[in-house]
Amino acid sequence: MDRPTTGHPDIGEPFTEMDLVRPAEEDCPCKEGMFPRASRRQFLRRGGLLTAAATLLPVRAMAADAPAAAAVTDPPWSVPGRVARSDYGIRSPFETVARLATPAGTDALTPLQSLQGIITPSGLHFERHHNGIPNIDPSQHRLIIHGMVDRPMKYSVEDLKRFPSISRTLFIECSGNSGGTARSAAPKTAQAAHGLTSTSEWTGVKLTTLLSEVGVKDGAAWVLAEGSDGALLSRSLPIDKIMDDVFVAYAQNGEAVRPENGYPIRLIVPGWEGNINIKWLRRLKIGDKPFMTREETSKYSDLMTTTGKARQFSWVMEAKSLITFPSGDMRLPGKGFYEITGLAWSGRAPIERVEVTTDGGKTWALASLQEPVLPKAYVRFRYPWHWNGGETVIESRATDQTGYIQPTKAFLTATEGVGPTYHYNGIQSWKISPDGSVVNVLNG
Amino acid sequence: MDRPTTGHPDIGEPFTEMDLVRPAEEDCPCKEGMFPRASRRQFLRRGGLLTAAATLLPVRAMAADAPAAAAVTDPPWSVPGRVARSDYGIRSPFETVARLATPAGTDALTPLQSLQGIITPSGLHFERHHNGIPNIDPSQHRLIIHGMVDRPMKYSVEDLKRFPSISRTLFIECSGNSGGTARSAAPKTAQAAHGLTSTSEWTGVKLTTLLSEVGVKDGAAWVLAEGSDGALLSRSLPIDKIMDDVFVAYAQNGEAVRPENGYPIRLIVPGWEGNINIKWLRRLKIGDKPFMTREETSKYSDLMTTTGKARQFSWVMEAKSLITFPSGDMRLPGKGFYEITGLAWSGRAPIERVEVTTDGGKTWALASLQEPVLPKAYVRFRYPWHWNGGETVIESRATDQTGYIQPTKAFLTATEGVGPTYHYNGIQSWKISPDGSVVNVLNG
């Protein structure tokens, strides 16, 4: 059957009524019920599936035995009720998308190339921990606020839930994300190269609320935040940021924060590097200078080999973007229409625009941004593309509302050298070969 | 220790440095590491916890044996690494919030009173099925589009993912939601009374895209949507709505649609009653009149006992709101500050405002709405309240941007009678007694 040229003539298969075993009964409005139970049973008997229905044969087995066309002629609805309802639902057994753990077990990366929209399901939010994940009884956990305050206090999780709350959809990104790419290790997939970032809707209490409770003394300028994990991870934050938009979250995507993300409470520091969003938060100490913890001295400062100096307190995650489809280790089935899609984010301001090139940087075009475009959250971008089947390189480039433009790797190397493995936000290039294979190639 | 009057003097406990076993080591910026491993081990030995650390004693057992104050002096970070990292994460074992199944097993309600923000975690999205949940192999599943079209087609799930996509955060509400309350059964909790609604971020392909592929014939006016479940649930939609904002979703909150929500694909009909958002979608047939299926004749029409007539094709879920905290079956610990919070939504237009009364309807005040306020999605509202400890009734009232105001039960009874169990959106009243107990009382 010839198909006229539409926008996407290469997608799908023509269908004829002969593919439908069932008559189109719905066209008779006179019947009491559209598909009375008796006629359905009759049909099942005709199709030889009643036994299968009675014994609850797993559909996977059935599908494996049947040709592909059987999905249309013997649709799965003929064997009802095979997934039990549950108090807390789980994925289909056919879904196997997973986080990717590093060999040390201290990181697990989000499968960015398999996800849609901007919300990362909590089960796939990236993990990063310095000494494992504590299993905290929330009824025993306390948040202490002390130091340069008028009234040192401790709060239970229930106490924190009593205060006025806010909800925000925000990305979190490990400062070491994409570091492997910066060092030209060229991981194969979007997940392996850039998966130490995720986005959730977080709910909690603003630090301005808590600090007005305890009363901050004159001269206070810094806050130490300390976690309850084995690493006792702690960082210093300037009080200006604290008063701007930092909050203590007890909920993630509607429910309690997940264990690997700081259950029962974590600090949320919008737009700043992941490790300062202290998980399993147990203590905030107010002081007049930075506390110079291990995590801001031996780690999380960025050595510039161009100058021999290190950048300290480089908190903000700058504008970045990434094409997630098509991306590394995928294979396009053939030339034709594809929607290029990906994610963009900036720790400073909302994303202003994302440009896409499909010719290795010779020409750039604006991608569409999915509304709403939220500050310090992922933005899903999309760009329609007809692939002509030839070799090419595709890239995306984000610009935020401060005017900051995502740089190339060449620019970062020229200005910062090859030292920093933190805060790498260079443009990502994917090369597509005539056989449809997509590979990670470093942007020059 | 006397506390000066702050906004919330009744929340939390004063803290003294004596509660901290550890000296404030972080104040010395000269050390290599803030908490060198040796000193931490020393501390663990002092606290008698080194054995516990070595044997990975479950914290639940430890916490049960220890007094409450131990959480501060012997914090859980002293026993690292007790939760394993995982490819697909799960909740803390301390979290037990669950859907509530009806006795028939055909419904399970979302625990609205336990959730935060607007996203419903997919594991707690409400369930409603007419004949169980099919376990569909997505590689075998096809969507057929036929009837009054130029090119009948069938599409695999992979085909559908090839088309241009959209993502939208949208509520879905069963048309029977709150029906029990309408009939004065007065379920105890927000979940039992109103839990047949949830909000997810859905991603899929617009029907305008698919219909332009198959070419709609002149005279087409209605579309039949049919599911693959045992009930073969099917509904008719006017083509105007189809061309406005209907789409076929393959993703929910970032990942694949969950089995109980239509895996691998479901129809999303923004703002319209849940049952028309056909799950396990297998077929769209284009016609020139409504198909008059069982679900739009024997069910899902609303009998008005005031006139003896039934309302047919009452698709839109009108503006509604609900206080989720405090709500039925909770107990406030005592007078003082509470943040009243809840959800509002409308199937027609964005929510314009939510008003809250804390004196049984004598006076109303504006609640704050959490940005962004999205069309046809939940809006989280919040209202600060100082409870004086006396008996009172609290309510919320939503107005959408069309000017529609959420009605009282008395108004609905006067205009519609006591017949309709569908589309009940009357104001919900919670009565608070001097002992802090909260009960569901019907709004007059």
What integer is the average pLDDT of chain A?
84
Number of helices of chain A: 10
Low-confidence stretches of chain A: 21-81
Overall SS class of chain A: alpha+beta
Strand content of chain A: 25-35%
Largest interface: A-B, 153 and 152 residues
What is the alpha-carbon Rg of chain A in Å? Answer: 27 Å
- What's the multimeric state? homodimer
**What profile does the largest beta sheet of chain A have?**
5 strands, mixed
- Helix amount of chain A: 10-25%
In angstroms, what separates the terminal alpha carbons of chain A? 47 Å
Instruction: Please state the overall shape of chain A, judged from the principal axes of the Cα atoms.
Output: globular
The number of E-state strands of chain A comes to 25
Strand order of the largest sheet of chain A: 6-5-14-9-10
Describe this structure in words.
- The structure is a homodimer of 444-residue chains.
- By secondary structure, chain A is of the alpha+beta class.
- Chain A is 15% helix and 28% strand.
- Chain A contains ten helices and 25 strands.
- In chain A, the strands form six sheets. A five-stranded mixed β-sheet of chain A has the order 6-5-14-9-10.
- The longest helix of chain A is centred in the first third of the chain and has 11 residues.
- About 14% of the residues of chain A have low confidence.
- Chains A and B meet through β1, α3, α4, β5 and β6 of A and β1, α3, α4, β5 and β6 of B.
- β6 of chain A pairs antiparallel with β1 of chain B.
